Amino acid sequence: MHPTQGKKKKIRLLFVCLGNICRSPAAEGIMTDLIKKNGLQDLIEVDSAGTSGWHEGELPDERMRLQGEKRGYDFCSTSRKLTRQDLSSFDYILVMDENNYKTVRSMASDKEEAKKIHLMTDYLVQYRKLYDQIPDPYYGDASGFELVLDLLEDACEGLLLAIKKAHQLS
Ligand code: 4NP
């Protein structure tokens, strides 16, 4: 347990895309690694979900797993559909593109839930202003998956910095 945290509940992050087999499980895997590298695994927990249930129960897309492995990640979460309960139980809901953002916003039951919903690109640092969505790689080639990983690695760094600042974590 982190000395400043006492018995407080963990900060809960949920990454959301359409299928929960490409972008959001990659974000989950990258963020999990980053949290461990920063020794914050007792303070922050991470999950992912899709606005569709099209791939429910599946592992991440093989192309994403392969590109992830090349960078030392193991993307191994199981696809699940986003629920209304997620909007109350998670603290930060990070959405990959505008369409999914609209869907998630439409599920918020009050202002408090709506305030938790952010576009992942809001946390970009190096790629700031170059991308306002994490592009859907599903129908493209390997370069699209590489781009997604470049953007997610950048945004995860920015997100962790923002969380550390907001929650006064060292
Ligand atoms: P994701 O990518 O939303 O990043 O998981 C997609 C996965 C599946 C489909 C579309 C996008 N699909 O049409 O099945």
General description of the model:
By secondary structure, the chain is α/β, with parallel strands linked by helices. The chain has a single domain (about 10-165), classed as Response regulator (Rossmann fold), CATH 3.40.50. About 40% of the residues lie in helices and about 10% in strands. It is built from 6 helices and 4 strands. It has helices spanning about 25-35, 60-70, 85-90, 100-105, 110-115, 140-165, and strands spanning about 10-15, 45-50, 90-95, 115-120. Strands 2-1-3-4 form a 4-stranded parallel β-sheet, sandwiched between helices. α1 crosses α6 and α2 (about 60-70) crosses α6. The two termini are about 15 Å apart. 4-nitrophenyl phosphate (4NP) binds near residues 18, 21, 23, 136 and 138.
Radius of gyration from the alpha-carbon trace, in angstroms:
15 Å
Poorly predicted tracts of residues: none
In this entry the ligands are: 4-nitrophenyl phosphate
Name the shape in a single word: globular
Summarize this, please?
The protein is an alpha/beta fold and 170 residues long.
Set out the fold topology.
Blueprint: E1 11-17, H1 23-37, E2 44-50, H2 62-70, H3 84-89, E3 92-95, H4 98-107, H5 111-115, E4 117-119, H6 142-167
The protein binds 4-nitrophenyl phosphate.
What are its keywords?
single chain; 170 residues; alpha/beta; Rossmann fold; four-stranded parallel beta sheet; 6 helices; 4 strands; 12% strand; globular; binds 4-nitrophenyl phosphate
